[in-house]
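Design review, sub-item: ligand-bound model
Attendees: FS, YL, KQ
YL presented the inputs for the NAP complex:
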Amino acid sequence: MTQAPVALITGASRGIGRAVAMGLAQDGYQTILVGRSRRTLEQVAETICREAAQDDDLSPLVVKLDLSDVDHVDQVLGPVIQKLGRIDVLVNNAGQYIQGSLDMSCKDLERLLRVNVTAQVAVLQTVVPMMKAQGSGHIFNVASRAGKVGFEGVGGYCASKFALAGFSESLYRELVPQGIKVTTLCPGWVNTDMGVAAGCTLDAGDIIQPEDLYKTIQWLLSLSPGACVKALVLESPKSMA
Ligand SMILES: NC(=O)c1ccc[n+]([C@@H]2O[C@H](COP(=O)([O-])OP(=O)(O)OC[C@H]3O[C@@H](n4cnc5c(N)ncnc54)[C@H](OP(=O)(O)O)[C@@H]3O)[C@@H](O)[C@H]2O)c1
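KQ shared the predicted structure:
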């Protein structure tokens, strides 16, 4: 029997990560769901088994992991990936929002950089060797429009997303020649808990939906091997500053 393709999604318990995990499972991927809350991840896994997984053997694997604990990322994720023996898609999505620029404490800035940059890099350090061995794979690093535009009042968050976007572009140049695609996703406001917490005042129906990120990933995965998309910015018509 041919092995199903494997997708690892960080921040799969809610929002964008949950929508992407549901979609990939529907498309026949064996999913690995990563986040801090085992209970919430298990609820997502149950929903996938009920609504999306096409085969009982494709039940999602749940991995409880606080990615800010960067020294443990490889220790926890490494054996899971080794057990499955391959990794086709990485959606490096988990992230945190903290408001502030000069008024932000250095401790908060360090926390943001750790979760939004260092942790993503730690996940990549675990996943990329397997993709290199396969000579294939597609990495989606979820940055933000705030990784392209420096918005006022959110200097720390923008710094973290610019940093991730920069790292991702370097990886694009390093890995594409080895058969591994790398795409930086830069959405504007998305209708999730984080969008609300970050102060989005637009109606939920007027902004990007989490499922739009999945549809974007689905489209990117459908492109031929000769077509690479380095970065993609998604905007809402009512928020184009
Ligand atoms: N919403 C927006 O408007 C927007 C726009 C542009 C970019 N983004 C980016 O898109 C990504 C997903 O955002 P979202 O809107 O879906 O946010 P969300 O609804 O707040 O979900 C964030 C996800 O990240 C996980 N997470 C956070 N900190 C973590 C940690 N230390 N270790 C492990 N998992 C952690 C959360 O899981 P647990 O809390 O269960 O651990 C949750 O699953 C983020 O990188 C965000 O910066 C969001």
